[in-house]
Amino acid sequence: MIINTAKKDEVFYEIFNQDYLSYDIVHNLIQLEISAIPLRFTGFRRLLVNMGFLSFSPDLNIQKWVINPKYKNMFDLDLMPEIKRRRMSLASLQKMLDLNKKLGNEAEEFILDYEKKRLALSKNSMMIRQISNYDVGAGYDIISYNSVDSKEYDRFIEVKSFSGTPSFHWSRNEIDIARIKKQHYFLYLVDREHISKMSYIPLIIENPYEQIIEKSSTWNKRIEEYFVMKD
Fold first, then answer.
1. Could you write out the DSSP letters of every residue in 105-136?
2. In this structure, which topology does domain 94-214 adopt according to CATH?
3. What single DSSP character describes residue 37?
Protein backbone atom coordinates (compact mmCIF):
# COMPACT_ATOMS: atom_id res chain seq x y z
CA MET A 1 0.00 0.00 0.00
CA ILE A 2 2.86 2.37 0.80
CA ILE A 3 4.56 1.75 -2.54
CA ASN A 4 1.29 2.13 -4.43
CA THR A 5 0.74 5.48 -2.71
CA ALA A 6 4.35 6.65 -3.16
CA LYS A 7 4.44 5.85 -6.87
CA LYS A 8 1.79 8.53 -7.47
CA ASP A 9 4.36 11.15 -6.41
CA GLU A 10 6.76 12.54 -9.01
CA VAL A 11 9.60 12.42 -6.46
CA PHE A 12 9.31 8.64 -6.34
CA TYR A 13 10.60 8.48 -9.92
CA GLU A 14 13.50 10.76 -9.11
CA ILE A 15 14.67 7.94 -6.84
CA PHE A 16 13.62 4.87 -8.79
CA ASN A 17 14.77 5.55 -12.33
CA GLN A 18 16.98 3.66 -14.75
CA ASP A 19 19.94 5.97 -14.17
CA TYR A 20 20.26 4.50 -10.68
CA LEU A 21 19.22 0.90 -11.35
CA SER A 22 21.50 -2.05 -12.14
CA TYR A 23 21.45 -5.82 -11.70
CA ASP A 24 23.61 -8.02 -9.47
CA ILE A 25 24.06 -11.21 -11.51
CA VAL A 26 25.78 -13.05 -8.64
CA HIS A 27 22.94 -12.69 -6.13
CA ASN A 28 20.10 -12.09 -8.63
CA LEU A 29 19.14 -8.78 -7.09
CA ILE A 30 17.91 -5.47 -8.46
CA GLN A 31 20.32 -2.79 -7.25
CA LEU A 32 19.77 0.88 -6.51
CA GLU A 33 22.59 3.42 -6.18
CA ILE A 34 23.07 4.78 -2.66
CA SER A 35 22.98 8.30 -4.11
CA ALA A 36 19.50 7.71 -5.51
CA ILE A 37 17.93 8.65 -2.16
CA PRO A 38 19.13 12.12 -1.08
CA LEU A 39 19.37 13.21 2.54
CA ARG A 40 16.07 15.10 2.46
CA PHE A 41 14.29 11.75 1.97
CA THR A 42 16.00 9.99 4.87
CA GLY A 43 12.65 9.29 6.50
CA PHE A 44 11.28 7.60 3.39
CA ARG A 45 14.48 5.58 3.04
CA ARG A 46 14.26 4.47 6.67
CA LEU A 47 10.66 3.41 6.14
CA LEU A 48 11.56 1.29 3.09
CA VAL A 49 14.41 -0.33 5.00
CA ASN A 50 12.36 -1.01 8.12
CA MET A 51 9.61 -2.61 6.05
CA GLY A 52 12.10 -4.82 4.24
CA PHE A 53 11.68 -3.33 0.77
CA LEU A 54 15.30 -2.12 0.69
CA SER A 55 18.46 -3.48 2.28
CA PHE A 56 22.21 -3.23 1.76
CA SER A 57 23.83 -5.45 -0.86
CA PRO A 58 24.98 -8.82 0.58
CA ASP A 59 28.34 -8.10 -1.07
CA LEU A 60 30.11 -5.73 1.30
CA ASN A 61 32.30 -4.51 -1.57
CA ILE A 62 29.23 -3.16 -3.36
CA GLN A 63 27.85 0.02 -1.82
CA LYS A 64 24.32 -0.19 -3.15
CA TRP A 65 20.79 -0.79 -1.98
CA VAL A 66 19.04 -3.95 -3.17
CA ILE A 67 15.34 -4.61 -3.54
CA ASN A 68 13.97 -7.52 -1.55
CA PRO A 69 13.40 -10.46 -3.97
CA LYS A 70 9.98 -10.87 -2.35
CA TYR A 71 8.93 -7.66 -4.08
CA LYS A 72 10.58 -8.32 -7.45
CA ASN A 73 7.34 -9.27 -9.22
CA MET A 74 5.63 -6.16 -7.91
CA PHE A 75 8.60 -4.04 -8.98
CA ASP A 76 8.63 -5.59 -12.48
CA LEU A 77 4.88 -5.44 -13.09
CA ASP A 78 3.78 -2.31 -11.22
CA LEU A 79 6.82 -0.03 -11.23
CA MET A 80 9.13 -0.79 -14.16
CA PRO A 81 6.64 0.14 -16.93
CA GLU A 82 6.13 3.57 -15.38
CA ILE A 83 9.85 3.99 -14.61
CA LYS A 84 10.70 3.23 -18.23
CA ARG A 85 7.98 5.53 -19.56
CA ARG A 86 9.15 8.47 -17.47
CA ARG A 87 12.78 7.82 -18.43
CA MET A 88 12.08 8.53 -22.05
CA SER A 89 12.60 11.90 -23.60
CA LEU A 90 10.54 12.77 -26.65
CA ALA A 91 13.35 11.49 -28.86
CA SER A 92 13.77 8.20 -27.04
CA LEU A 93 10.00 7.75 -26.89
CA GLN A 94 9.88 8.00 -30.67
CA LYS A 95 12.69 5.49 -30.88
CA MET A 96 10.87 3.13 -28.55
CA LEU A 97 7.76 3.38 -30.67
CA ASP A 98 9.77 2.65 -33.77
CA LEU A 99 9.09 -0.76 -35.28
CA ASN A 100 12.72 -1.82 -35.03
CA LYS A 101 12.70 -1.25 -31.28
CA LYS A 102 9.50 -3.21 -30.94
CA LEU A 103 10.98 -6.09 -32.89
CA GLY A 104 14.16 -5.85 -30.82
CA ASN A 105 12.13 -6.37 -27.65
CA GLU A 106 10.38 -9.32 -29.25
CA ALA A 107 13.76 -10.78 -30.19
CA GLU A 108 14.97 -10.57 -26.58
CA GLU A 109 11.84 -12.32 -25.34
CA PHE A 110 12.32 -14.98 -28.01
CA ILE A 111 15.91 -15.61 -26.89
CA LEU A 112 14.89 -15.70 -23.24
CA ASP A 113 12.43 -18.47 -24.09
CA TYR A 114 15.00 -20.15 -26.37
CA GLU A 115 17.57 -20.29 -23.57
CA LYS A 116 15.08 -21.70 -21.10
CA LYS A 117 14.24 -24.46 -23.56
CA ARG A 118 17.92 -25.12 -24.29
CA LEU A 119 18.54 -25.71 -20.60
CA ALA A 120 15.14 -27.21 -19.84
CA LEU A 121 16.65 -30.24 -18.08
CA SER A 122 18.62 -28.08 -15.68
CA LYS A 123 17.46 -26.13 -12.65
CA ASN A 124 19.50 -23.30 -14.13
CA SER A 125 16.71 -22.70 -16.64
CA MET A 126 14.67 -21.00 -13.93
CA MET A 127 17.51 -18.57 -13.19
CA ILE A 128 17.99 -17.19 -16.71
CA ARG A 129 17.31 -13.45 -16.65
CA GLN A 130 16.61 -10.66 -19.10
CA ILE A 131 18.46 -7.78 -17.44
CA SER A 132 18.19 -5.18 -20.20
CA ASN A 133 15.19 -3.66 -18.40
CA TYR A 134 17.25 -2.95 -15.31
CA ASP A 135 20.73 -2.21 -16.60
CA VAL A 136 20.83 -0.49 -19.98
CA GLY A 137 24.60 -0.12 -19.79
CA ALA A 138 25.50 -3.73 -19.04
CA GLY A 139 26.60 -4.44 -22.61
CA TYR A 140 24.38 -7.52 -22.90
CA ASP A 141 20.66 -8.28 -22.63
CA ILE A 142 20.38 -11.74 -21.09
CA ILE A 143 22.39 -13.70 -18.54
CA SER A 144 22.38 -17.47 -18.95
CA TYR A 145 24.48 -20.61 -18.58
CA ASN A 146 26.70 -22.43 -21.07
CA SER A 147 25.58 -25.88 -19.92
CA VAL A 148 23.58 -27.78 -17.31
CA ASP A 149 26.84 -28.17 -15.35
CA SER A 150 27.47 -24.43 -15.01
CA LYS A 151 27.56 -23.28 -11.40
CA GLU A 152 27.30 -19.56 -12.12
CA TYR A 153 26.32 -17.26 -14.97
CA ASP A 154 28.81 -17.88 -17.77
CA ARG A 155 26.88 -16.92 -20.92
CA PHE A 156 26.26 -13.20 -21.48
CA ILE A 157 23.99 -12.65 -24.46
CA GLU A 158 23.53 -9.56 -26.58
CA VAL A 159 20.46 -9.94 -28.82
CA LYS A 160 20.28 -8.35 -32.25
CA SER A 161 17.30 -8.38 -34.58
CA PHE A 162 17.64 -8.31 -38.37
CA SER A 163 15.77 -9.01 -41.59
CA GLY A 164 17.34 -10.42 -44.73
CA THR A 165 21.13 -10.53 -44.62
CA PRO A 166 22.43 -10.77 -41.03
CA SER A 167 23.47 -7.27 -39.95
CA PHE A 168 23.42 -5.22 -36.76
CA HIS A 169 24.72 -2.15 -34.94
CA TRP A 170 27.23 -2.92 -32.20
CA SER A 171 27.92 -0.17 -29.66
CA ARG A 172 31.33 0.71 -28.25
CA ASN A 173 30.24 -0.44 -24.80
CA GLU A 174 28.99 -3.79 -26.10
CA ILE A 175 32.25 -4.33 -27.99
CA ASP A 176 34.28 -3.55 -24.88
CA ILE A 177 32.28 -6.01 -22.79
CA ALA A 178 32.65 -8.66 -25.51
CA ARG A 179 36.43 -8.13 -25.48
CA ILE A 180 36.55 -8.54 -21.69
CA LYS A 181 34.29 -11.57 -21.42
CA LYS A 182 35.73 -13.33 -24.48
CA GLN A 183 34.28 -16.86 -24.86
CA HIS A 184 31.58 -16.10 -22.31
CA TYR A 185 30.05 -13.39 -24.48
CA PHE A 186 27.60 -14.36 -27.23
CA LEU A 187 25.77 -12.54 -29.99
CA TYR A 188 22.37 -14.01 -30.82
CA LEU A 189 21.15 -12.76 -34.19
CA VAL A 190 17.40 -13.19 -34.64
CA ASP A 191 15.85 -13.13 -38.12
CA ARG A 192 12.55 -11.29 -37.85
CA GLU A 193 11.18 -13.17 -40.85
CA HIS A 194 11.58 -16.55 -39.14
CA ILE A 195 11.07 -15.76 -35.46
CA SER A 196 7.55 -17.19 -35.46
CA LYS A 197 8.63 -20.61 -36.76
CA MET A 198 8.68 -23.31 -34.10
CA SER A 199 11.91 -24.87 -35.38
CA TYR A 200 13.80 -21.61 -35.86
CA ILE A 201 17.31 -21.44 -34.39
CA PRO A 202 19.02 -18.02 -34.15
CA LEU A 203 22.50 -17.38 -35.49
CA ILE A 204 24.79 -17.66 -32.46
CA ILE A 205 28.30 -16.19 -32.41
CA GLU A 206 30.54 -17.14 -29.50
CA ASN A 207 33.36 -14.75 -28.57
CA PRO A 208 32.27 -12.23 -31.25
CA TYR A 209 35.11 -9.82 -30.47
CA GLU A 210 37.55 -12.41 -31.75
CA GLN A 211 35.30 -13.78 -34.49
CA ILE A 212 34.18 -10.42 -35.90
CA ILE A 213 36.61 -7.71 -34.82
CA GLU A 214 39.94 -9.51 -34.76
CA LYS A 215 39.94 -12.11 -37.50
CA SER A 216 36.67 -12.38 -39.38
CA SER A 217 36.76 -12.28 -43.17
CA THR A 218 33.04 -13.01 -43.52
CA TRP A 219 31.76 -9.87 -41.79
CA ASN A 220 32.03 -6.46 -43.43
CA LYS A 221 32.44 -3.62 -40.95
CA ARG A 222 32.20 0.14 -41.38
CA ILE A 223 32.55 3.03 -38.97
CA GLU A 224 29.37 5.09 -38.88
CA GLU A 225 30.19 7.37 -35.96
CA TYR A 226 33.22 8.86 -34.18
CA PHE A 227 33.48 10.29 -30.70
CA VAL A 228 35.64 13.41 -31.10
CA MET A 229 37.27 15.44 -28.27
CA LYS A 230 39.64 18.38 -28.59
CA ASP A 231 43.12 17.87 -27.10
1. HHHHHHHHHHHHHHTTTSGGGGG-EE-TTT-T
2. Trna Endonuclease; Chain: A, domain 1 (3.40.1350)
3. S
